[in-house]
Amino acid sequence: MSNFVQLEINERNRWIYFNNYRWVAHVVYWIWVLVVGTILRTKEPVTFFLIFNNFLLANLLIASFFYLYCLYLIPYFFKRNKYFLFWFLVIAGYLSISALDVFYSKAFIKYSDPDPVKSQGFFPDYLNNLGGYLANFLFFSIMLFFMEKNEENNTLLELEKEKKEIEQVKLDFLKTNISPDFLLRSLHQLKESARVPEEHTPEAILTFSDLLRYRLYRGRQAETPLKEELCAFASFIHFTSFNNQLQIVYNQQGEAENKQLAPLALINLLEPFCKVSNEQPVPLEIMLLIEADELLMEMNYAQKATPQLISDLEIYEENYVQLYGNAVKFKFDNHQDDSFNVKLSLPLF
């Protein structure tokens, strides 16, 4: 599997200099070489024979070296951290092709007009090739560098987009992740209430319906109005009073207008406490303070937390930290007096 992944990475690295219309830059580069190096330097009419000899054949070796460099040496050596071998092959290729070009030009290139640079022997021609190759190689490398930066920026944009999509999936999961235990117990409670009609049964059914509607149909938004979340949270507290598992005392301070909050942050925190079965209602004090840019919440549970409750709270912390990072501060612990304390700080937007 790792070999397959590496092959895919190598294949992707090979073609980044041509993907996303970057091949146009190569076309422009060679048109520039054609105009500056051939058309503007000749006094003869521009014919196919002239372009074939003075441009195609004259640049065959240097083009071969350039594309060996960007299609093979960079992806298979430089990007795999084989730096010594990479630079050895680049320098060796540069020196050897410059030398080979001296013999190649004499043997295969037939200029239609006198060669503007007359041969002065192997070493002068070789030194001239080294300078010309180096200048063109530097220009070509600069072009590849900007292509790399463009690919890097595109990759960062793709990663950012994928990150947002992942966060949205997590957010949707949190918004629709109804605890099966809570749902089944709530439905069972409503069923029992329907069998033995009580005064609060219609109200309990309506409250439960409102909670489900808020959770399921709030919309695919990264934030929810704090005022709506608090209303839903108050409804949830009211609903829990019907099953005689918790005796909640709820206090709230602060202004909720024009503030946004992570969706279902409060409801999802209270839900694990509703899963705990108790013979007698357990007091749970909830204190909520709304500040300018954060919401502070403290919960005092009048008995020690069960392992399942702690596990659920750890999952809650993991989910919201993944969504909102270090802006979420969450702490909980059992006290020696058989009580359990939870402290939460959430960012407001």
From TrEMBL:
Residues in domain Signal transduction histidine kinase internal region? 170-240
PANTHER family from the xrefs? SENSOR HISTIDINE KINASE YPDA
Recorded GO CC terms: membrane
Q: Name one Pfam family in it.
A: His_kinase
Name-wise, this protein is Signal transduction histidine kinase internal region domain-containing protein
- The answer to whether keyword Lipid biosynthesis applies is no
Q: Which residues form a coiled coil?
A: none
Question: From the Swiss-Prot or TrEMBL record, what is one GO molecular function term?
Answer: phosphorelay sensor kinase activity
Key words, A-Z: Membrane, Transmembrane, Transmembrane helix
Q: Which InterPro entries match?
A: Bact_2-comp_sensor_kinase, Sig_transdc_His_kin_internal
Q: Where are the transmembrane segments?
A: 21-40, 46-72, 84-104, 130-147
The organism encoding this protein is Pedobacter steynii
